[in-house]
Design brief:
With 424 residues, this protein is α+β, with helices and mostly antiparallel strands. It has helices at 22-31, 48-59, 85-88, 96-105, 124-132, 165-175, 191-202, 235-248, 263-272, 313-316, 335-342, 372-384, 395-400, 404-410, and strands spanning 2-7, 12-17, 39-42, 63-67, 70-74, 107-111, 135-140, 143-148, 157-159, 181-185, 206-208, 214-218, 229-230, 249-255, 277-278, 282-285, 295-298, 323-327, 347-350, 353-356, 366-368, 388-392, 414-419. The strands form 6 sheets. The chain has a 4-stranded mixed beta sheet, covered by helices on one side. Strands 2-14-16-15 form a 4-stranded mixed beta sheet, covered by helices on one side. It has a 4-stranded mixed beta sheet with strand order 4-5-3-13, with helices on one face. A hairpin with a 5-residue loop joins strand 11 (206-208) and strand 12 (214-218). GO terms for molecular function: UDP-N-acetylglucosamine 1-carboxyvinyltransferase activity.
Length: 424
Amino acid sequence: MKKMIIHGGKRLSGELTIGGAKNSTVALIPAAILADTPVRFDTVPHILDVHNLKIILESMNVHSTFENDVLTIDPTHIEESELPSHAIKSLRASYYFMGALLGRFNRATVTFPGGDNIGPRPIDQHIKGFKALGANVIEKNDSVFISTGTEGLHGARIFLDVVSVGATINIILAAVKAHGTTTIENAAKEPEIIDLATFLNNMGAKIRGAGTDVIRIEGVDSLRSQATHTIIPDRIETGTYLSLAAAIGDGILLKNVIPEHMESFTAKMIEMGVDLQINEDSIYVPRVSDLSPVRVKTMTYPGFATDLQQPITPLLLRANGNSVVIDTIYPQRTQHIAQLRKMGADIRVQDNLIVVGHSSHLQGAHVEAGEIRSGAALMIAGLIASGTTEISRADNILRGYDRVIDKLHSLGANVEIAADEVQV
């Protein structure tokens, strides 16, 4: 494991470029095995999750190269094989191989995925979708066994009981080569789903309605890549740096941004009193001197993203009064609270609400990044705090943030990664 060492209390300024979306990338890489040709992705983020997905691909004789932000994947010699459990258990999104393998081979065996511990994230809606498409699903010994009869998968009408990004994506991956037409109702509408559908459609898939709550998929026999697919900018990375910029910036410009994807987040920043300058593909955050408290409630897209409720917390600590955070998606996403309190933050859980009070002084401390977004909150808090902050389990931050150390250095931050021999 690694640790992040931050010498905080220094105002930051400059500009940085947002990388490709992690939540798109971790779906697009499994989707690549559906192709009958090599595929290429551009603006791929340099994160640990990409490395682990490459390990999973290699176990199936799918070779890949990753150079200069371009990832090339060749699935033309793919072989069915047991997927490496250590890589599967390292990231939640490995479950997309269920849909992709089912679409490619009409069967799949996948170990229950790991990833961040942020509360229950059941895969019952994924399984419901697979069964509707004609698959048999058996859960046994920490694994999921999925298979179809000789006729393979067939189109179906699937109504998701709850809006689920993961289930929507997995059903698309399984249905894109199924016989007939599949309709997903109450589908998730995230930009990353549109990105996936764009990639598949450019290879010959017939997916309509991505970005709405009804998606229709007409199965095709073959998918063939014709051009490099450029991954959309990461809206969660964007929100994290927007929070950082408003909390401790002296003027920071974020480039490669899709402002429309950020509206629920930037609306809260403007409500707090941040005078954002929003351009066509960039956002400038000036120095902020006075912030008002706000109420944040996470919702499915286009609402406020659950992945941003922790990264905005250090900014809420700067507000003049009590802010309230309600996470309706993952109510147990509270690992950052105890860690921030070690640094002197006024933050607590009260009646199932996260109450964030004004904290005029944060002090560096030894803290632990229990998961990606908790780690991001601690990283921003460490940059604000006086003294030195050491964040153990910093691998969790590196899992989700593209070249984070280089980007922080470009803003003038004093931060480094080192080996972490002692766990907090």
